[in-house]
Amino acid sequence: MMFKGSTSIILVGWLLMVTGDRECSWSRTTVQKVDSCPVNKSTYEQRRMEKNCQALAELQHCTTPSNFLYHCLINEYGDALIEVCAPIFIINGYCAEYNIIGARIQPHYSLKCSDINPPCGDRYNSTDAYLYTGCYDIVKKNQLKTNVNTNTVSSTELSTTVGEIPVKENSSLETQPALIAVIVIVMIAVVTVVIAVPILVIKRRGYPCRKVSEGSPEQNPLMPLKKSTILSGSVTNFTCDRSRYEKFINLGKALRDTLLVEGDTLQDKMDENKGLKDLLS
Q1: Contact 113, 94 (CB under 8 A)
Q2: For position 151, what pLDDT does the model report?
Q3: Residues of the chain whose pLDDT is less than 50?
Q4: How would DSSP label each residue in 51-76?
Q5: pLDDT of residue 73
Q6: What is the per-residue pLDDT for 201?
Q7: What is the SS3 string spanning 71-121?
Q8: Which residues cross the membrane (predicted)?
Q9: What per-residue confidence (pLDDT) applies to 242?
Q10: H or E segment at 185?
Q11: How large is the C-alpha radius of gyration of the chain?
């Protein structure tokens, strides 16, 4: 029983070492996206020296310093290349990737070694990923597709924007005649008011009825003065309020027409009235 318990503890510890140590947050601090990865030994050594992973190898606690090495791998999405200092890992049958979220090197399960050209090895160290350029080529193809899609979307948006410009211009052109019509109507109304107001004021105040240069007001008893200037016993000018006497004049005309018999004249009626007056007296 004690042997079985000890075996279980050893297995659990081994699993923790294998799985739990796979995440290395130290490696995440060294991640850098690059345009290309080395494809031969000399370029690999040059880039390894520039990255200088040895400076951090003594500080990190993910693995032994000798296993904390330079890598150039694809990312977890297969659309970018990454330089990183990370613990070495053995890859079986797939392209190698560095997962930024998990902070670890692992197989890129959507890219089998047998599906790329040239194919990668069935089993290889993650530091040897530079030997299998077919994995890098997939990234370049994915980047090209992304750029094409981005350009297509940009072109569509540009076409839509350019297509909208004439519509806006036409709309403004269509509103101009309506605006001009409103302005013209307002101007006509203003001019009409300016002309009509003085006329109405003049009519309400009255207007000259007769101009007399000689004589006195008594010579015109039916034309009362509204405004007059009397010089040397003569009236030089006067006006009358026509509306106040028109109804009496019209009433007199109607009465005259009623009294006159057809064929009679006003003089006949006057003579007749005079004879009647003499008879009564």
Answers
A1: yes
A2: 57
A3: 1-20, 165, 167-169, 171, 173, 207-208, 211-222, 224-236, 238, 276, 279-280
A4: HTTHHHHTT--SS-GGGEEEEEEEET
A5: 98
A6: 66
A7: EEEEECCCCCEEEEEEECCEEECEEEEEECCCCEEEEEEEEEHHHCCCCCC
A8: 178-202
A9: 57
A10: helix 133-205
A11: 58
In whole angstroms, what is the distance from residue 199 CA to residue 195 CA? 7
d(CA 105, CA 98): 4
Q: Which residue has the tokens 């029983």?
A: 1
- Any idea which residue has 């039916």 for tokens? 222
At 190-232, the pLDDT tens digits run 878 778 776 776 666 654 455 444 444 444 444 544 444 444 4
Q: How many Å is the maximal CA-CA distance in the chain? A: 174
Distance, in Å, from the CA atom of 233 to the CA atom of 215, rounded to the nearest integer, reads: 7
- Give the per-residue pLDDT at 16: 43
Burial of 235 (0-12, 13-18, 19+ CB in 10 A): buried
Instruction: Tell me the pairing of strands 68-75 and 94-99.
Output: parallel
Contact 105, 96 (CB under 8 A): yes
* All structural domains of the chain with their residue ranges: 2-144, 210-265
> What is the per-residue pLDDT across 30-44, written as a single tens digit (0 to 9) for each?
999 999 999 999 999
Residue whose token pair is 């089998």: 112
**In this structure, are residues 83 and 59 in contact, taking their beta carbons and an 8 Å threshold?**
no
